Amino acid sequence: MTDTASSQVLVPSGEEITASPRLRSSALWASLDQVLFGLSNLILNLLLARWLAAADYGAFGAALALLFLVGNLEGALLIEPMLVQGPKLRDRFASYLRVLLGVQLRISLAAAALVVAVGLALRAAGQLELGLAFLGAAAALPGVLAAWLLRRASYACFATRSAALVGGVQLAAVLAGAVWLHAQGWLAPASALLLLGGASAGAALALAWMLGVRPGTAVEPAFRRRVLADHWRYGRWMLAGSPFEWIPGNFYYLALPSLAGLAAAGSLRAMMNFVLPMAQLQSALRFLVVPALVRHGESEGFTSIVRKAGVAFVAPAFVYYAALLVAGPTVASVLYGDAYADGTALLAVLGLIPVLTGVSHVAGSILRARQRGDCELWSYLAASLVAVAIGVPWMLRSGAMGAAATYVVAYAVLTGARLYFVGRSGGWRRIHHG
Length: 434
Fold this sequence. Notes:
The chain is mainly α. It has one domain. Helix content is 86%, strand content 0%. It has 17 helices and no strands. It has helices spanning 4-10, 14-18, 20-51, 54-85, 93-124, 128-156, 160-184, 189-210, 221-259, 262-272, 276-296, 300-336, 346-350, 352-369, 373-398, 400-424, 427-433. Helix 9 (221-259) runs parallel beside helix 15 (373-398) and helix 12 (300-336) runs antiparallel to helix 14. The N and C termini lie far apart (45 Å).
């Protein structure tokens, strides 16, 4: 059997997508979904930061950073190309998702095997808690990656209501699970990752059903080959750049344990929890903006979307930064007690990140919509080189504060590089004059 009929019901037509009310509705549901997804991660992180020792929380952060690295590889091959190719395959969207899910499963299992090997090696070397956290990350990988893929699939076909509904259930499951684990005395980095993986797997199954994916549906070999070829053609630059995309925002959590100790990594992660809500909201908007830009090409609608995206990304980030400066230390004291009292100074530095990424997301969305993955590669390469070059000595000298400063500098370089490539291709001239 085939799933063409079901996908036609689920995916709106081009006229429906490009209509302003449809786009506004999708944006609102996407924002709600991202709020719920962000709350799920934020609550789990806040509870762990409060209930675990700083070193244990640092182990959780290191394992989570490794999970994000694998997620970046999946994003390069599957998610980023899907934002461009998905809107063009509205009549075969469920079949299209089946192809992507098959690739995603293979990536997950291969990556999980490698993470298991690293975890066992760490345990053999005496890093028991860190090794166990890596094993928990390996078990969580398939569910987490499938949920990420299917949530973005709902964005690509503007079915963001499904993602938001599932996100609400996932939030409740994570919160209830974390409280129960703590009450039983079982809350640890590994068990928290298993909880995250289980909740994500349930969310993935629900989203797959809501998006029309059914067991036993056949996908023609020719269609599968075409999908894989299109994804490889677009995603190969992204795949080459995915490790560099990961470095500016994540390598600190793996480097800090050896350079300044697990507690320093825990402190950085605890303060980054206050930046995550705005980062998650910006991510939701970006995954809506790219398909909309693809639909409009270089028309006046393209110009309008870019301008509105600039306001939506940047203005809230400035307001959020001001609020963080005023209330951040007090909120941190209420949530964490005295556990991270020395780390609240990090907030003034880390709060700059959403301001920079707001501008960066606008430029990056233009480059991705125009399939300029090569420009994205060079932008992330520049940011990664700067992050490693200055990050290692700064972390050795200043620990978590050195990592926070490197974080900001790396994203400033990324933003500047993206703006340069958009301008070099004449993008700003076309945007301003439509």
